[in-house]
Specification:
Chain lengths: ~230, ~230, ~50, ~230
């Protein structure tokens, strides 16, 4: 329907702008790989240590990468007041938000596709044994970050201390989804499928995504019409 | 079919406790052209932004053809040109127009036609960052007129344009006027804008102190309106 | 019960009351600051008239 | 008029709190295993209720602000959040002191303590965001949206942390456990102290609300003076 069509237009515009300027991709990628290296130096983890906190470590890298990417999401509209043109177009606030969240999701997924093999090499983890489950959990976790992150990027776009404010607001609110993602990724990295008592985390992650996507889509219009 | 009627019914806009707009009330008929005058900070931009659905009125409201300004169908017919050009520097002219055009459902042929009309087709695929000021302004005008808007909201359109761009904009506005579109443009008392206007409104510290026909004296003597209606300060 | 148990009880009670008292003091400070601002502004308005 | 209510409430609450304190230290029966330190519990659980009430009021006020756009609800939201944070701090730190004795470590990753800390972080972010926005109308709208997001997240976190780890003793109140685990005298004191702290919270709320109104008046006057009209 038209909302999704408008969202797609905004998403392709965002991705094209990003691929042309690479203003957030470069910094995010190098930043993520550096963190992976630092952890390797700091812990020099043995395989069973990896089984215990591999998922946590991976998600810490993704969370930092996420904050860098979503920070630029609405900031990109400020030069030349492009935000005014978008808001005055027939596209609703919700489709603007969805388009931007989609673009951030794709960028973040790109960074993850590079970090995961790097993680596998640095910590010699055969992460692809239960690949299906892993991709599912990564997608859910990444969407929760893209959704909440992009919404808060819209919320804080006009503030002075935006770079500082966004992560500070975003991280505590994302704790339930990050916690679930870390628990699930931990077991999936070691190759076993999600154990029965862990399905509760999967339900939490899915519930979190549903609640916050609806809230964001519903409140986007209020936030964007200044 | 002629452009929509625009009505403001007791619009108040507060920035905190500061009334940027105080009980602004007017009805603009279909196909009319209103010149919105006033000093800096009188509330011209605030009123235009509310009419374009960019910000909400604290009290009262505006209606375009009786409809809500945030309704998608209404906004599909509105053309907005703000102070800055509203284009992406990293994208080319064609990509910019294609992105905005897609939101209004504009076909590719119209886009190249408009690139031709503002004679930018020779640089259509270079990023806007490399354009001269005049070229950027012409592209901004093309973006505002791209989807054939029936209501044009222009915020001091003439102030930063070079001569070629002013001539282009005047031609387009005259054509739109002839075609029955409704136009509201805020201006710093520049003659070009006054010639087009059929109605004139004067805002003074948020209050609409005058709204009526544009007379010839106003055209010849820019200060006339401020002396007769504006407050001394 | 070892002696530490009782002392920690007093720590706990002290912290509870202390924090609430601290918040009350903060409110009081803000109250004074607000009234001061209000008075200076009112005087400025009088002078303008 | 409101100052009269505040003073009247104060006249009731302060002696009530002192009486409770006296009873808690001397009269309430001892808990056999934990010894006197369990008495901190009367200042650990009740503030948790008051904080939760504060956060809930803030959420409702924020929703009402978005619907009705009346600055009054924004004032209630910020005051309720601030008071929620104050009582949550009491809950958090008393919990840590109590934990120090019963578990032997300052910070046990116990479900309720962790949840209280996360809630504190989320709503502290709310206050910091408010300070970063100058225009009151804009500030009210953005904080209302943030408050709704915050309360949704804090609610989900409650469940998440619960599943994650809980060393916290199970619910002790008879209403929750169907009676029996707590000595009735202890339980009555819990309710009484909760009531006393709720009254104190109400006083703080009224004072804070009046301060918001004074702040609005100041902003209005300052604009009037600067606008020079």
């Amino acid at each position: 329907m038209t909302m999704l069509r408008h969202a797609a237009v905004i998403a392709t515009k965002d991705l094209r702008s990003e691929l042309r300027t690479k203003e957030s991709i470069n910094s995010t990628l190098s930043f993520s790989v550096v963190i992976l290296l630092l952890f390797a130096f700091a812990f020099d983890p043995s395989p069973d240590m990896i089984a215990e906190f591999g998922g946590g470590l991976l998600w810490i890298v993704f969370v930092f990468a996420g904050a860098l990417i979503v920070n630029r999401s609405f900031a990109r509209e400020l030069p030349n007041d492009c935000i005014d043109v978008l808001v005055s177009s027939p596209a609703s606030g919700a489709s603007l938000f969805l388009g931007k969240a989609l673009a951030s999701f794709v960028l973040l997924a790109g960074v993850e596709c590079i970090c995961l093999p790097a993680f596998g090499i640095l910590y010699n983890v055969t992460w692809w044994r239960s690949l299906g489950g892993l991709i599912g959990v990564l997608a859910l976790g990444t969407w929760s970050m893209a959704c909440v992150g992009t919404f808060f990027s819209a919320l804080t776009v006009n503030l002075r201390l935006r770079e500082l404010m966004l992560p500070m607001l975003m991280y505590p609110i994302l704790i339930p989804s990050l916690l679930s993602a870390m628990m699930l990724t931990n077991t999936l990295l070691t190759g076993q499928p999600i154990p029965s008592d862990f399905t509760v985390w999967l339900r939490l992650l899915i519930g979190f995504n549903i609640i916050f996507t609806t809230l964001s889509v519903y409140l986007a219009e209020t936030v964007l019409v200044r | 079919m002629s452009g929509p009627a625009v009505a403001a019914a007791g619009v108040w806009k507060y920035f905190g406790d500061y009334p940027a707009l105080r009980d602004v009330r007017f009805e603009l008929g279909e196909g009319e052209c209103l010149a919105l005058l006033g000093r800096n900070g009188a509330g011209k931009t605030t009123l235009l932004r509310i009419l374009a659905g960019l910000s909400g009125a604290s009290k009262g409201g505006v209606a375009i053809d009786g409809g809500d300004v945030r309704a998608s169908a209404t906004r599909a017919r509105v053309g907005w040109l703000g102070h800055s050009i509203g284009l992406y520097d990293e994208l080319s002219a064609r990509e910019n127009l294609r992105t905005f055009g897609a939101l209004y459902g504009v076909k590719a042929a119209t886009i190249s036609e408009w690139l031709e009309r503002v004679n930018l087709s020779h640089v259509a695929d270079a990023p806007v960052r490399e354009y001269s000021r005049g070229m950027r302004q012409r592209l901004a005008v093309a973006r505002a007129f791209l989807h054939g808007p029936r209501l044009l909201l222009l915020d001091e359109p003439f102030t930063s344009l070079d001569d070629k761009a002013i001539a282009l904009l005047q031609g387009l506005l005259a054509a739109a006027r002839a075609d029955g579109a409704t136009i509201i443009l805020s201006t710093h008392q520049i003659r070009e804008a006054m010639e087009l206007a059929s109605l004139v409104a004067l805002l003074d510290r948020g209050k609409l102190v005058h709204y009526g026909e544009r007379t010839t004296e106003m055209l010849n003597d820019p200060g006339y309106l401020y002396r007769t209606y504006g407050s001394a300060a | 019960m070892d002696e530490r148990n009782i002392t920690f009880m007093f720590y706990g009670l002290a912290v509870a009351w202390g924090l609430l008292a601290l918040y009350a003091v903060l409110l009081g400070l803000r109250e004074r600051d607000l009234t001061k601002q209000l008075d200076t502004l009112k005087r400025m308005v009088e002078e303008k008239k | 008029m409101r100052t009269k209510i505040i003073l009247a409430l104060g006249a009731i609450t302060l002696p009530f709190l002192l009486r409770n304190l006296h009873m808690i230290i001397f009269l309430v029966p001892d808990d056999l295993e934990q010894g006197p330190v369990y008495r901190i519990f009367y200042y650990h659980l009740p503030p948790y209720f008051v904080a939760a009430m504060g956060y809930f009021t803030a959420m409702v006020a924020s929703i009402l602000y978005l619907v009705k756009k009346d600055q009054k609800y924004d004032a209630i939201a910020v005051s309720a959040t601030e008071i929620g944070l104050a009582f949550a701090a009491v809950n958090l730190i008393t919990g840590m002191i109590w934990g120090r004795i019963s578990w032997g470590i300052w910070w046990a990753w116990d479900a309720r303590l962790t949840w209280a800390l996360i809630g504190w972080l989320v709503y502290f972010g709310y206050l910091v965001l408010r300070r970063a926005i100058d225009d009151p109308t804009e500030r009210a709208k953005i904080s209302a949206v943030l408050s709704i997001f915050a309360s949704a997240s804090v609610a989900i976190t409650y469940k998440a942390i619960e599943w994650w780890r809980t060393q916290h003793p199970g619910p002790v109140l008879s209403i929750r456990t169907g009676g029996g685990t707590l000595d009735p005298a202890m339980e009555n004191m819990l309710y009484e102290n909760t009531l006393a702290l709720l009254l104190l919270g109400a006083i703080f709320l009224l004072v804070r609300l009046r301060q918001e109104e004074v702040q609005r008046e100041i902003d209005g006057l300052r604009r009037f003076v600067h606008a020079g009209n």
